[in-house]
Amino acid sequence: xxxxxxxxxxxxxxRATHDFGxxxxxxxxxxxxxxxxxxxxxxxxxxxxxxxxxxxxxLIAHVPKNDWVALDQREWAYDRIPATEAVSHALKTVIDxxxxxxxxxxxxxxxxxxxxxxxYLDVVVQGYLREFGDAGVDRFFATTDGWDAPILNDRAEPRxxxxxxxxxxxxxxxxxxxxxxxxxxxxRD
Length: 189
Known about the structure:
Blueprint: E1 3-8, E2 21-36, E3 45-62, H1 69-74, E4 79-82, E5 87-89, E6 95-101, E7 116-117, H2 118-142, E8 144-145, E9 150-152, H3 168-180, E10 184-186
Parallel strand pairs: 1-6, 2-8, 7-9, 9-10
Antiparallel strand pairs: 1-3, 2-3, 2-5, 4-6
């Protein structure tokens, strides 16, 4: 039986948000990220969407004893999709890899009523910076759609349950990238 792994492309790239074993940098081909809203919660989700011409960076990590329950609970709004053949990684063992994505029929574009949480975005960018450096952060922004969605500045009272403290230079990096992409940060919803 092959070892089960997941491919994380958002907050799961930040190792401080989980304790899954053997995390490794990896790339997922044929997908990109997008900010989307569903009727499942009042803020935007980051999801993977099929895109044959794009490859995204992320992390793979081991799911111990094939026990997907905790990860499925964390990613409750997403479907778990087999992705083994689309993921490139440096492991020499044979593994099965899944990716989580919100089904297309269940999402729409974010709006003022369903903003992106800045506390969540901070965690994601911090993870990309730690794993892939500045170039990885650039690739994250370039391979993610939906920067026209409003971003709720909840840093003072983070709503994201796995928020992390950022160093001042990490905060400035996030803010700089948002300005470069013309993102609109709002202070209340």
